[in-house]
Amino acid sequence: MKITPKRYRSDSAKAAVQAAQNVAQGPITPPGCVSLRPQDGAFWNAIVTARPRDTWTAADLVVAANLARTQADIEAVQAQIDGTGLLVDGKPNPACDLLDKMTRRALAMARQLMVATIATVGRAQDIGKGAELERRAAADHDDLIPTLATLQ
What we know:
7 helices
């Protein structure tokens, strides 16, 4: 017996209704079994909004919390490296090894959660096509046509 809800085509009216309902529910909160620090919040929000709300399971949310903590820790270690430098007393900074391990862990969790680039944006050739469209749009930009930046 299948226990997961039926997924609708992304271009269907049912999918549009589901998306609107997901947005109306507001941000996903972390499960009660995990705790996030204040510095993890921005990473949590970025992670849980990378996929549709109705695709998250409780187990996924636990991994997402671990990913958010890891990403916040990566920022802290990077700040330490920025302050002390890549070399300490002429030797490689030990924090660089820690940063490398944490980055690998974060990438593995992102792939597991399917929030890595290929899962959320698509294949490299598709991304390249989108970037080319943006470059053309920027080249064709007319200062007489208002943009969102000029309207603010």
